[in-house]
Amino acid sequence: LKQAVKQLFFLIGAITLNSLFLRKDMCSCRKGMQIRCNISYLEEWLKDKNLQNSSAKETLEPLSQAAWLLQVKKITDDDAKEICEHCTSLSTVQIVKILNSYTPIDDFEKRVTPSFVRKVQAMLNNREDAPQLMLDTKYLFQVTFPFTPSPHALELIQVPSSFKLGFLTRV
């Protein structure tokens, strides 16, 4: 169950994040708040189902950081430094794409200046991360099955002749 929920949460996060990268109208402070609210609902659901210790929550971290990035102030050098320190699950390309796509909806919001984007990009230059923008929505996590040893001594088991496995030899 934990593995299925983790895969599902990854898919939710990857598709939503890819939509942010593809659609400028999704890159606003209001959408950031909406995404953060929805993530909170998912985290509450995990808590209600006693799955908060599963790694499903971590699969939403890039989306959570993107939502934070949409909501944070993007003006001063300190803002740029905070973005670099906080957005560790996002690649440089992804951060720059969100900043460039940011679209103010209300009058109190301001467009992100190209100089601010260059400042953030310069601060992130020494970071080693994947140059890809989009997340792979077809990625599958490895499925693991717990090992449960047999309570029966295998050397004492008799294989019925009806199985026609006479070629097997006991070791």
Q: What is the overall silhouette?
A: elongated
Number of domains: 1
| Structural class category | mainly alpha
DSSP strand count: 0
**Oligomeric state of the chains?**
single chain
Strand content: under 5%
Largest sheet: none
Mean pLDDT value? 92
* Amount of helix: 40-55%
Radius of gyration: 24 Å
| Uncertain segments | none
Helix-strand pattern: HHHHHHH
Continuous helix count: 7
Ends apart, CA distance between termini? 37 Å
Describe the structure.
The chain has 171 residues and is an all-alpha fold. The protein has one domain. Helix content is 51%, strand content 0%. It contains seven helices and no strands. It has helices spanning 2-22, 29-48, 56-59, 61-71, 77-86, 92-101, 114-124. The longest helix has 21 residues, at 2-22. It is elongated, with a radius of gyration of 24 Å. The model has no long low-confidence stretch (mean pLDDT 92). Residues 1-126 form the Dilute domain. It comes from Jacana jacana (Wattled jacana). Keywords: Signal. GO terms for molecular function: GTPase binding. This is MYO5C protein.
